Amino acid sequence: MRKVKQLQERVAVSDLRAAADVIIKNGRIVNVFSGEIMEGDIAIKSGYIVGIGDFDEAAEIIDAKGQYIVPGFIDAHVHVESAMVPPSEFARVLLPNGVTTIVTDPHEIANVAGAKGIEFMLADAAETPLDMYVMLPSSVPATPFEHNGATLEASDLRALYQHEKVIGLAEVMDFPSVASGKTDILQKIVDAEKHGGRIDGHGAGLSKADLNNYLAVGIRTDHESTTAMEAMDRLRAGMFVMLREGTVGRDMIHTLPAVNPKNSHRFCFCTDDKLIDDLLEEGSINYNVRLAIANKIDPVMAIQMATINAATCHKLPHLGAVAAGYQADILFLRDLETVTITKVMKRGEVVVDDGIREESLFKKQDSNFESPAILHTLKLEDLKLEIAGTAANIIGMQPNSLFTEHLVEPITVQNGEFQVSVKDDQLKMVVVERHKGTGCVGVGIVKGFGIRHGAIATTVAHDSHNIVAVGSSDADIMLAIEHITKIGGGIAVVDNGKVAANLALPIAGLLSTQPYEEIQHQLDHLNDAFRGVSAKQGFDPFLTLSFLTLPVIPNLKLTDQGLFDFNVFGFIEVGV
What we know:
Layout: H1 4-14, E1 20-25, E2 28-30, E3 37-39, E4 41-45, E5 48-53, E6 58-63, E7 68-71, E8 73-78, H2 87-94, E9 99-104, H3 107-113, H4 115-125, E10 131-136, H5 154-157, E11 166-172, H6 175-179, H7 183-194, E12 198-201, H8 208-216, E13 221-222, H9 228-236, E14 240-244, H10 252-255, E15 267-270, H11 276-281, H12 285-294, H13 299-306, H14 308-313, E16 330-333, E17 341-346, E18 349-353, E19 356-357, E20 391-397, E21 404-410, E22 412-414, E23 417-419, E24 426-432, E25 441-447, E26 455-458, E27 467-471, H15 474-486, E28 490-495, E29 498-504, H16 516-533, H17 541-547, E30 556-559, E31 562-565, E32 570-572
Parallel strand pairs: 1-6, 2-7, 8-9, 9-10, 10-11, 11-12, 13-14, 14-15, 20-25
Antiparallel strand pairs: 1-4, 2-3, 4-5, 7-16, 16-17, 17-18, 18-19, 20-21, 22-23, 24-25, 24-27, 26-27, 26-28, 28-29, 30-31, 31-32
Helix pairs in contact: 3-4, 12-13
């Protein structure tokens, strides 16, 4: 909340009656409104830009030495939990990549722990320079077709709108409930609008006619476009379109052709789900910007998409520009082609200089989060998959895509039970309910992981976050599941009866308590272990597996209740 005295102080500096806190000189300013490159001194007072022009008096003067000055980047839609670290640690990764603001949907931890999980994320984020704005989860549980750990109805969300960082309702995934006019989801939308919030969409697989249902109830964004035509359908319907480049959802190459100078103001960037190792190797939104430029998008246009467009999309009028009245979130770029960041300022304070963080600004709360117990009643016989025929519906995993193929293939059956075929890459996949000890176990067949011997398992399984595993033998699958249960949640690779690598995620089975550097080391070990059991490369096996349980994205998925076909929006038998 702005105060009169603060505004008076800003005006005094802009009117040259008082000294600034910081002045940036000799920079080439990217004007995201006009598309021009400008010159001028940037005066900053109390974390805000108060003027661009001729300024001399300040406590600190920074010489930009001809570098480009651009606004801090904004990730328009991200799930922090997918990086397997809490927000305070996430900030240590993002700020050196020029991301000064994120808009997040904490529905991963909410599906495990409900409102307490959201409150934990907000409290942890408050300890860092990064601005984390929260869109409240709209679909907890995501669908009625699986068991999760918590339920958040409209009445459970209302109190959270009082938090200054809560700005709307997150991706509405339950399209059938919207289309049929279900009261609870529509009440959540009404409540978000009442508090001035934006409502995010989740239009995976939706037709142009389906989008009308979304627009009719006030949903105005979507991040699920996988082709340029889908992006254009959403644009023509009046949506803001978020172009996604994450660990699994790598869609920008296919969607960028939809962008042109006439419509670019309706596009912004997001990562959605991106693991620590990819964030460290590629970057975050800075990678989206570089990728856009490499694919013939004008550099200034790409910067607009990463800044002012995202701020406009989410009704954040104080962010996204280097101009008077805007928060002083500023990046120094060596050039506009490689987007090489040399300095990052947050609220007028240098937080990263030549890649070095000012660590004193990054605090981390002691994690006193009471993580829910991981419960299951799994027995080896629960892993049997009985099939009467000799053919089956098989989940066809597609590398670097959230979508799957619906395959129908002949299979090997002995004594009425499916037999894994390493030769045909037909592996057993298992989803075990872990929140309430229901004993529900879904068993199916997946193709694409190429596991020759062994298994992988994880408690990161979107969105209900049950246990999911895939492997070449029941014994190895069982061992992997038992191991991640023993360590309180996480990821494990088993190779011929031995645990080859693991990563513990003791916060809700989703987040680590370790520094990201240690997580990176353990992820490297996990990837090495996967290479030891599989012939397939070029994709992230763990996040890919975690999305094979999400029934709101086409085509076939597996939940703890069975094999789900998105196209009929219901369960089908594995056997044909």
